[in-house]
Design a protein that fits this description.
332 residues; mainly alpha
Amino acid sequence: MVVLSVTGTLYTDILTDRYGVNLAITTPVIAVMLAVVFGLWYRKEHTLSIHSIVTVPREMFYWLAILVTFALGTAAGDWTLEITGWTPGIAVLLPTFLIAAVVVGWKFGANAVLSFWMAYVLTRPLGANLGDWLAVDKQLGGIGVGTLGTSAIFLSAILVTVIYLAIKRPDVIEDWTMEHVAAVRQPARERKMLGYYGVVAAIAVGTLAYANSRPHVAFSAREGAPSGPVEQLTPQQATANFTAGDLAEFSTIAQDTLGLVHAGDQAGAVTRVADLETAWDDAMTKLEPVDGRAWTFFDSEIDGVLTSVRASTPDAAAQEQALTALVTSLAG
């Protein structure tokens, strides 16, 4: 499970960070993939209940669904931050509310299997936003535990949960038969609760739409983001300790991206700016020791470029301003 969680998260991060695929595309595409997995699973096995996973095909479908839900959770969690401008601490409230609403629905007679998978899928963006909230600095709206501390907290929580389940076995159902399931189901009540879930979904979509319509800046939990105000340097100060060769690649990519923005090729700009992020991250170990102050300054300017180019509603003027400032600084 832990390996799948890391793998699913990496797939989303690779698509977004390395290949520049917009989260507005990644999230619905992965959601459709999950729906396809569930559809094929149900068509072949006629049940999606985790208590019926007693054959190899069902187990394979289960683990495939888990992998896709982790990828979806990362994409949905990051997309929520991008379109709303919420900090992770605020963003965790939405999936928490939705999970609580699912529990209420289940208690009042909603289909148990449907409720389980809805709640399970929602734990993925909850986990993504909760992880960001714990990891990022306080100045960015987080707790400031750091990536290592957050990983330790989650691994400890997993270990405690596994030990508890192994000893107490509250998740084990002794009388699991199809006759037993048929006896406890209430189809009429389940159909009514579908309407309830529809209302809950409408509230969630309305909340996101309202937040997106308000002026905001997309939150970024990118590693290496400065934790406080960045000292502003002149181009001469920023490049004083670097050679022309050290900064040439970044300047070329920034100019290329600016040209694409001027040409109205937003997709091309998003793709090209991913090269800037990758190149900058790769050069960190070389450049930061040379001049940490200048590196932090450039890192902040590059963050500004990434945020403006990848915004859910891109603003050409903001992109040009961020890219022009970076090109000017890199030129010395």
